[in-house]
Batch of 3 targets.
Target 1
Amino acid sequence: MRKLIYLLNMSLDGFVEGRDGKFDWFEPDDETHRFHAEQIRGAGVLLYGRRMYETMSYWHTIDDDAALPEALLEFARVWQATPKVVFSTTLEQVGDTCRLVRDNVEAEVTTMKEDDGGDLFVSGPGLASTLARLDLIDEYRAMVCPALVGGGKSYLPGVEDPILLNLVETRGFESGALYLRYRVSRG
């Protein structure tokens, strides 16, 4: 059975975007891009809601531009090659290597978890919150960025019941970011 992993950057005070809806308070460096590429390399499927997919669809447009840092190009190549499922009732179409799903998130993700292949990665607080409330997430991975945002969208909005976790891994970065990996404790 494949694991479902929630991976996302957040501020030290727990926000993934500021009050203005932007994520301009942390600029990922080469080390961070390489780390994220390594995280999703070999992933079976990347899962997105509409808003996060629209943000990440930028990576569809990156080509082998010699002016761009190699770490950024490597992340783009890994992202482009990885299959994606986008959950949305409003999008009309999605890009290459993507499949659009309009309903029944629970059944779709449960079936994907039972399939063979690489782990599933969800990115985006809205979809992740839905999956957390359904107890489908197996690991939480957060890149805690060296910034205090003071408000905005939280890492896991709308989850009210406690989710007990076991720390599996930590890693510090030269940028001051800290990676935290937790496994869900299920009795």
Target 2
Amino acid sequence: MKRVLISLMIIALVMALMGVGVYAMLNDTGTSTGNSFTAGTLNLVDVISGTATSGNITVNEAADGFNDNVVFTLVKPGDAGTITWTLTNAGDIAGTLTIVATTSFSQGVDTEPELALPVAGLDSKIDVVLTRGVTTVYTGPMSGLAAALSGESNVMAGASSLVYILRWSVAGTVGNEIQGDTATINVTFNLNQ
């Protein structure tokens, strides 16, 4: 009996020691110091410029992330020019560029020669060709430009640029129907991850 009791005590002691060893293994601690995390950046910088052979175009550069616009006034048959938007992701991570664009047209005051003609304005009389780099995005009347720009979506890597060029012209055969008319293009560029 004494032997059985001693055997049971030894078994209990061994189990107690094993429990302490398992407890010690399951509660091991390690320390890691000096860890840091830096978030990437997106920073869309847009620059707009424009030229005209004659007539007036006003190019309004807004702060980054706000509406750039172009106003066409006093254009006449034979006028032409270009509008360039240079977009740069000055950040260090990629983002998706989307564009929101609208165009608006005003008939202005109808003059005597204009009154004898069917109503037609700059929306159908300014022809445009929009390119992104070497890719033609849209060709046609200015009335379709907003939809073409608003349909654009491009991934921009960090520290990369995209250039949009709008070539515009009023054919020399256009007549009195555009007298006093104006056209405006409003464009907002967005870059999101």
Target 3
Amino acid sequence: MPDLDRTALVVVDVQRAFDDDPEYWGRRNNPACEGNIARLIATWRATGRPLVFVRHEFETYDHAFKDVITGEPDLLVSKQVNSAFYGSPDLDAWLRENGIGSIALCGITTNHCVETTARMGANLGYDVLFVLDATHTFDRTGPDGTVMTAEELARATATSLHEEFAAIVPTEQLVSA
């Protein structure tokens, strides 16, 4: 486990837009996600650890954060693609300028923006902690018409990231450390 005092909590796309159009997004998993994110944010604030909020600037949806995202972060990144490393201001530059070598990731959605940020973070040389129980995703239909449940997609993300791109950790491990 990296030194958590030098680990930035990167909270990815926890936005109201994901609740605004349930017909579009569909069924989600992990109803505990937002509560776990709130616990992580509170822990990072209480310990003075670096805190980053990431906001996806959707073309047609509200950009507002969900109520669980409170206070001011040390850095607010706005992006229009999946990875928080392709936003403004430059997340990689900010982390390096502040001597931060590891990131803990949480947010929405598990298998899109959070996973993409994890993969890029690892490729850029960061130690990545992927807080799976502080993420959620939605059921998705594949090219063959088969629906993969949100639970299956979350498990696939954890399996794909495990030991190559990130350490998969629970919220409790980070808030009690």
